[in-house]
Every structure is written in structure tokens, then in C-alpha cells.
Amino acid sequence: MWHIIVTSTPQIFWAGIKFTIPLAVISFVIGFIIAVGTALVRISTPKGNSVTRSLWRLLKWFLSFYVWLFRSTPLLVQLFIIFFGLPNAGIQFSAFTAGIITFSLNTGAYCSETIRGAISSIPESQWEAAYSIGMTYRQVLFRIIFPQALRVALPPLSNSFIGLVKDTSLASSITILEMFMVSQQITAKNYEPLLMYTIVAVIYALFCSVLTILQHYLEKRTSRYVKVAGE
Question: Which of 21, 53, 126, 176 would give a disulfide with 171, using CB separation of 3.0 to 4.6 Å?
């Protein structure tokens, strides 16, 4: 047993460093950018002529549909549609690219609601006060509202990233050699499924524990100037 642990653990861990973590990080960064753009569009009020307002409303409807679609369908089904389904329509991606696209769009849909809620939680009086001293919408948003909203959104965003690290195990279904798939390949050779899946579970737990510690640190750093009620 110890021989299997010693020889298999480095292979699984290396697959995590080579595929699992990059897949999660790249997807989350892209998904966060999508989420911010989606949230800002959905909370904004269109200005300009009737054509501009109509186009803006159409964009808001499309983004609302996108969020609904990716929050209403299983992630595994989304992976299969993009990797196995789209080639029938003449659109083909490598396994890693398909994983990035799927995880990014899924993350963007969920995180956009987190960011939208965080921005909406900032009192309207702060917008009014900033406008009263001559600040533009862009200045108010990025100098006053967004930094506060990001602090509010940090815990759920961190949870989304930790969840994404675990969800990358689904990438094995589209042939990405991440940790879970490597453990399956080793299991097919040594016929020790309980031991191998326990090892991969421990490594996932290790990664997520490190991320949880980082999350707590960031929460303390971003909240160091916030006064606690009663102080």
C-alpha cells in the first residue's frame, strides 16, 4: 500500500499543478471579467436616443438570458455541449480550451449575480453624495462604489473559486488530464479505487485548505478599516 501511495501521490499532485490549478485560475480570471461586465450592464440605466436605449435593453436581455441559462443547466452538460456537441456545428476546440470556455462562462454567470448584489448593497446616498461634488458615473463607480462592493463580494467570490477548483474534476469527462483523471488511470492499473480516490480527495482538500487560509487573510486585509458595531 505504501508503495502505491509513494509512487502515485506525486503523479496526481503534479497533474494538479499542471492542469487543475491553471484551469481553475485562468477560468476564474476570465469569468470574473465577464461577471463584472455583465453586472455593470444589468444595473445600469441606458441613456441617449431611442435607438441606443433599445440596443442597450437588448444587451441587458441577452446577458440576463445568459445568466439564467448557465445557472439553470448542469456544468457537466455544458462541458459536453461545448466539447462534444459544437463539433457537429463545425466549431471545435481542444479539451483544455473547451474547459476554459465552459468554466469561464459558468463562473461568469454565477459571479455576476454576486457582484450585482454587492454593488446594489451600497447605499444610494453614496452615489448622490459623489454626484453632488461633480464626480462622473465612471469615477463614482470605480473610486467609491466598486472598492466597497468588492469587499462585500470577496467571501462569496472566494467560495466560488474554491468551488471551481473542485469542479475541475469534471474536466476528466472531456479527456483533460487533471488530478481526478490521473487517479482513474492509475486505478485502472493497480485496481485500488478506494486508496486512489482517497489520495486525490486529500490533495483536493489540501489545495482548498490553502485557498481558504488565503481567503481569510484577504477578508481581514480588506476589512481592517471597517469599524465594528459597538466599538
Answer: 176
Condensed to tens digits (0 to 9), the pLDDT of residues 79-98 reads 999 999 999 999 999 999 99
Write the pLDDT tens digit of every residue in 93-126.
Answer: 999 999 999 999 999 999 999 999 999 888 888 8
pTM: 0.91
Helix axes 50-72, 21-43, angle to 10 degrees: 140
* CA 195 – CA 59 distance, rounded (Å): 50
Q: Cα separation of 123 and 190, whole Å?
A: 60
Please give the Cα distance from 95 to 121 (Å, whole number): 39
Which of the following CATH numbers is that of domain 2-222: 1.10.3720.10, 2.40.10.10, 3.30.70.60, 3.30.70.260? 1.10.3720.10
